[in-house]
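In this section we walk through a basic example: taking a raw amino acid sequence and producing a predicted 3D structure, encoded as discrete structure tokens. The instruction is simple. Fold the sequence below.
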Amino acid sequence: MSTNVLLRRQNELKTRMKSSGFEAIVLTPGPMLRYLTGLQIGSSERPIVVFFSQNLEPVFVLPTLERAQLTDLDFQYECFDYGENPVEWQFSFDQAAAYCGIFDRQIGIEEQFMRVFELKHLREAAWTTKFTNAKDVLDSLRCCKDDHEIDLMRQAVGIAEKALEQTIIETHAGDTESEIASRLFKNLLDQGSSTALPFQPIVAGGPNSANPHAHPGNRPLERGDILLIDWGANVNGYFSDLTRVFSIGEPDAELAKVASIVEQANEAARDRAAPGVSASAVDIAARTVIDDAGYGQYFTHRTGHGIGLAIHEPPYVRSDSDVILEEGMTFTIEPGIYLPGRGGIRIEDDMVVTTNGAQSLSSIPRNLIVLDG
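The resulting token sequence is shown next.
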């Protein structure tokens, strides 16, 4: 990401902090830190935080061994690093807190990613400071993607689709879920995905497909099985997240019917999405199709979630959401019906809100595809 883009994002955060009453926001490793700095730093047994203040450059507190990651940053920053002795760690936090002048102020944190570990050091460094959740400020900053971000996500979708197409060619009755997942992983890397996949692919056959978040196991595929695959790719930190379903030989008649219902629900939700439409209306569009078909009790999750630098991020597409869709928002549409002990169907696409509606970034067929047994 270019320095100009990173500085624009940091300045936008400063503007939002001022209007929200935050003197500073302190982040730990995660998607938001990458969004603002371009850095890919992971959490570990050593604490890492970055202070973003209204009137200062970013201030890092991190172990000395991670300082080398800052050398390529092309914007001003301050750093208080520490060695391996845990006794030294608090002193670096104390220095950073004093440098940023956060005493007796309201400081924002990201509750989803801030560990008690880091928060304890922050409170000891500034015990009179009020640390509160800055979720609303941070969510609004990253919710609408620019053209470059959407292009990266489009590339991630293309890689995922090509990898699945190759994997399905190689899939037959008798293959285990784990074997298929391994081939899919390799094909994703061969097609150009980063090794840091958004998540481990879900490959679920037969009755396992009725578990929305099943883990691949050693069960061999049998004729008549539903095969559900939920997978994604990573391009420069931006993710795709797709789900398609197949049948090993001719499927059970009811599951074939369910697949058609879910496909219609997916289409209804995609058609409903547009600027000015609530996320709840999109969820209801999908849910109504499934309810009217008599399978409402088997649709057990929201219709979708935002996607970008995180696999799950705002906006969340659920029936009680008051979020109004805006141009540039990206999210999944993934209705599903899960019949316990028999099988499940989910069809998932990645969407972007456009000027006049919404576009699917994914294009592979959504119908239940029958594979030769």
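Looking at the output, two observations stand out. The chain has a mean pLDDT of 96. The domain at 3-142 is CATH 3.40.350.10 (Creatine Amidinohydrolase; Chain A, domain 1). In the next section we compare this with other chains.
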